[in-house]
Every structure is written in C-alpha cells, then in structure tokens.
Amino acid sequence: MFSLRNLPSLAPFVSAYASLTGYVMMIKPFLEMTIPPPLQNYMISYLNSFLHSTPSTLTLIIDDHIKNGMYNELYGAAQVYISTKVNHNAERLRISRDRSEKNVNIHFSVGEVVSDIYQGIEVKWRFCVDSNKSNMVHYFGEHFKLNPDRECVELSFEKKHTELVLNSYIPYVESKAKVINNERKILKMYSYCCMYLKWQSVNLEHPSTFDTMAMNEELKRSVMGDLDRFIRRKDFYKRVGKPWKRGYLLYGPPGTGKTSLVAAIANYLKFDIYDLQLASVREDADLRRLLLGTTNSSILLVEDIDCAVDLHTRLQPKTQDDTKGSSMLTLSGLLTCIDGLWSSCGDERIVIFTTTHKERLDPALLRPGRMDMHIHMGHCCFDVFKTLASNYLGLSHDDPHHLYPEIERLIKGEVLTPAQVAEELMKNEDPDVALEGLVKVLKRKRLELEKYDGETGRGGLRKPELQFFL
C-alpha cells in the first residue's frame, strides 16, 4: 500500500505546503475586507491573462497582383507549394483536370486552412477571394463597372518568428515551387482580356518541337544554339549592363511555320507565351501595364505586326483625327516598352514578332537590341520535305523512297510552302500514293511558276536567310 513512509523525501514538501495553506487561510479574510471587490476581480483577471496568455500572431497577405497590375510571382509560388500540402481530409476541396492530364488535381478551397511545419515552427496558409471590390474603368470611351475577384493567400504564424519566415521560409517556398514547376511544367498561353484589363491563360498544348519542326536543319541548329547561349548568359547581360532579353523577327509567306517555330521555342525553353494583340491595346499606358503583368522566363508574342494595328510612326505626321484623342498607341510607345527602361522590369524575356512583309516595318523596330535575330521562314526545301515525310508517313531518312530524287529536283525554289506539302502528305496514309500525288502537284506548280517567271522576268531562287545581331 502506498504511503508517505515509502517516500520519506516528500515529507518536507508536504509540511511546507500545509504551512502555506494555513497562512493563506489566515490572510484571506483580511484581504477580502481591505481590497474592494472590483479591484479583486481586476487582479484575478490580470493574473489569469498573464498565466494563460496566447502568443501574438502575424498574418501576411499575398495578393495575386500588386500595384500597377504587375503579377505577384510570390503568389504563384505560394499556390504551387500549397498544392503539395493539401489535406485530403478537409471539409471542402476544389478539383480540376486539364484535357492533357489523366489525374485529377486537388486544390484547397476558399477559407480552408493548410498547416505546415518549418524548422520546428508552425505556419498556416489560407486561401481567400474578395468579391466585394468594385471600381469604374474607362476604356475605349465607355465606362465599365467591374467586380473582379481579388485572390490572395494569407500566411499566419507567431510574431516572434517573423524574421525566420521572411528571410528563410519564404525563399524556401519559392525554391520548392520552382522545382515543382520544373517537374510538372504545364506551359500557359496568355491572352489579354479587355473587360477585366488583365491576362487570362489556357494550357499551351501545341505539340511542335525542334525534333518535329519542318525547318532547314542548318537554320534550326542556329536558332537552338542562339537560345542556349541566351539562357546561360545571365551574368554576361548583367556585366555589360543590358536587360536579359532577346528579340526574334520571324518573316516569310503564310504557311512557312512561323507559329510552329514559336511553339517549338516555348516547348524547348519551357517558357509561357503572352500573345499580345495590339489591336486590343488603346494607348501606350495600357501597353506598359500589360507588359508589367508578364512574368520572368516568358515569351512576348506579337503576330503579324505589320497589319495588327496602324501604328503611328515618327515618319508619319499626325492627322487631325490623331490629335483629337489625348493618347493613342504609338510605335514610339511600343519601342520604349521592348527596348527602353521598361524592358528592364524583368529577366529572361524573349520578344518575338512575326510578319509576312518585313519591308513594311519601320527600320527602328528591326535594329539590333530590339530584333536581335531575323529568321526567314521560306518555302519548303528538300530537307524540310524529308522531315515532313517522316512526321506524316513514317518514312526513315536512312531508307529514302524511290521518288525522293524526283521530288528533290522538283521542290527546289519557291514552289510550295511546308503547309502545302503537309496537306498533300495527309491525303493518303499509303506513302506511295501520297508521294505520287505530291509529285503531280509539284510538276503542275513548277509549270505555273515558269510561266509566271517568263512573263515577269523574275528569276533566281531564294535560300533560307538568317541574320544575327549579337
């Protein structure tokens, strides 16, 4: 049986406790008589708050966009990182699946809290959407009342850990998000939404790669080499004091693969594409705001720049209609955004312009530093044809078809574009039938060209062109 005799060392403590209890019982009536009840309650409340106080908490709010419409890359990193921490036992979860994916993606919903432990401290993430924010926007002479949803992520933790969270945990989240993105990279294609004045995205699922790209092999190797050199020269650009960006001009007839080359570059570098439709941009200020909303490691694409919008150039005097408006989109504003001080607001950027008529472009747009590499996307040559035959008919380069010599003779010059050749190869899955049909088309097209050249006096063959400005 347990008794104090079994624990003689506790006897002094028991004796002291009994004495203390006796003293408290003796002075309690005295305290109740001398201290007013309100003061007693205050003292008891203060002691309870002191003994049972909870640590102060700090909450950091990470918005999806920051001032001037610039995308908050920390928000994107937080979203990616949190997606790996979602508790599947939560009460509410959001799910989605892209067309290119088999598995369902799980995201935490509004108000749901996700906990994380970092170096022994606990932090809590919470996703919020504010739908009450409204404002008036003046656009193209019209007033729009918008109610955009402002998305944000809240990060809460004990205030005493602020320095650790800001200097260590946040960089850790960003680095982990970058690794996750590289592992499951899903490229995005962004377009400008006039109604909400912001970029909206869809998944970029274009299958074009440099392996399947129907393009002159020498030209292809030159483009890939230039891209590789650009990516690894971050320190070089910083040392010489230039923004880390590169400009490419793709020019040539329709159907020569300009859009496919853009997709191949995006897939090669794992860069998102921002498709800028200049016709939807009202003035230079809107263009600056749009460019600030793009992210690093991305491609800014302006297709058919010669006919996308009637840019006012420095060689054209302003008309009376031009002076009526207080502002407009100008070539000068475009040049400032892609090559002026605004171009330094970001790293690892690629700007690509496409055009069918290079001669129509202002020379100021084509100079080195703006369009550093001019790539002529010409008609189909024999090397390009062999790539197309491999893609569409499964023919090997090492085992040429018996019609190859005749096709090589007929296809020289500006006869058919790669798109026209691909269309002929798609008409039949039998290689013999498809190539015989292509030979007939090539013969007919050459007769038409020879007749045209005889009437106009045009002669000579154009070779693939590539201009570098390093």
The helix/strand class is alpha/beta
**Beta-strand level of the residues, as a percent range?**
15-25%
- The total count of helices amounts to 16
- Percent of residues in helices: 40-55%
Kindly give the count of domains.
3
- Would you state the CATH class of the largest domain? Alpha Beta
Given as residue ranges, the uncertain stretches (5+ residues, pLDDT < 50) are 133-147, 313-318, 322-326, 460-464
- Assembly state here? single chain
Outline: elongated
The CATH superfamily of the largest domain appears as: P-loop containing nucleotide triphosphate hydrolases
The value of Rg in angstroms is 34 Å
CATH architecture designation of the largest domain: 3-Layer(aba) Sandwich
N→C terminal distance: 94 Å
| Largest sheet: spatial strand order | 10-9-12-13-14-11-15-16
Q: What is the average per-residue confidence, as pLDDT, rounded to a whole number?
A: 79
The largest sheet is: 8 strands, mixed
Catalytic activity: ATP + H2O = ADP + phosphate + H(+)
GO molecular function: ATP binding; ATP hydrolysis activity
Keywords: ATP-binding, Hydrolase, Magnesium, Nucleotide-binding, Signal
EC number: 3.6.1.-
